Amino acid sequence: MLLPFLVTIFANMTKKIIITIDGWSSCGKSTLAKQLADKLGYLYIDSGAMYRAITLYFLRNHVDWTDKKEVINALKNIKLEFIVSDKTKQSEIFLNSENVEYLIRDLIIAEKVSDVAAIKEVRSFAVTQQHKIGEKKGIVMDGRDIGTTVFPNAEIKIFMTADSAVRVERRFKELYAKNPNITLDEIKSNIEMRDYLDSHRKASPLRKAEDAVELDNTYLSEQEQLDFALNLVMKIL
Questions:
Q1: pTM here?
Q2: Nearest-CA neighbor of 57 among 44, 75, 30, 42?
Q3: What pLDDT is stored for residue 208 in this prediction?
Q4: Taking the C-alpha atoms of 187, 189, 195 and 198 in order, what is their torsion angle to the nearest 10 degrees?
Q5: What was the pLDDT predicted at 37?
Q6: For 21-77, how does the pLDDT look when each residue is reduced to its tens digit (9 = 90+)?
């Protein structure tokens, strides 16, 4: 484990970098990204939350996302923001001034988000906002195409993976607390569907960047994967 004073040095350094964390669903990308941002004093941006929030808006407003014109008009009415919560001290996503951080975690959103995220106009809308967020650097952003499409010149790129059975179990534990009626089969089907859609979409498919460092956390604890990432940062800073 890295010594605490080294982490303090990282957080106080004037040089800021961009760290991208891509990978398959339910690999713990958000967990690592949040911890890493906290240790470095960086802003954490959950790019997946942006697509989930857009999906929520589409569902609420009965937007037919197979209709290009309807999608373009709907995007004009969407405003996304990340605001650090006084309670959690984490950045949470706001959709048109409404905190939807927890609403977007429902399974119905998870079932539709890959379809919405595959739309060229939606991705262009989200990527434009992500570029603006990254202008000042000092961010950790996780998603599917952050190191390949959004920030191809990021100083550190991590690609996360894990055994599929482990991913299903992790996702089940996460959702069961909110919905005791959820089943392992439902989770397994959802993850398999998302993996296929994410890796086969035409617009920015999920893939490992050539210069990304792979992190298989199947048998790693949260602290071990955090130490792995901090060591990468130490080499850069």
A1: 0.81
A2: 75
A3: 95
A4: -100
A5: 92
A6: 999 989 999 999 999 999 998 989 988 899 999 999 999 999 999 999 999 999 999
- DSSP for residue 134: G
Phi, psi of 161 (to 5 degrees): -145, 165
The range of the structural domain enclosing residue 115 comes to 17-211
Spatial CA neighbour of 18 closest among 137, 129, 135, 131: 137
- 232: number of Cβ within 10 Å: 17
214 forms beta bridges with 159
pLDDT band at 218 (very low <50, low <70, confident <90, very high): very high
Q: Residue 183 belongs to a domain with what CATH number? A: 3.40.50.300
SS3 199: helix
The beta strand positions in 72-146, using DSSP E, are 80-84, 91-95, 98-99, 139-143
Residue 115 identity: D
User: In the structure encoding, which two tokens stand for residue 16, read together?
Assistant: 């800021």
Beta strands in 7-115 (DSSP E): 18-23, 43-46, 80-84, 91-95, 98-99
Residues 6+ apart with CB under 8 A from 64: 70
Q: Is residue 118 part of a domain?
A: yes
How many structural domains comprise the chain?
Answer: 1
Tokens linked to 225: 């994967």
Q: How far is CA 70 from CA 61, 73, 208, in A?
A: 11, 5, 32
**Which pLDDT value is given to residue 136?**
87
- What pLDDT is recorded for position 10? 56
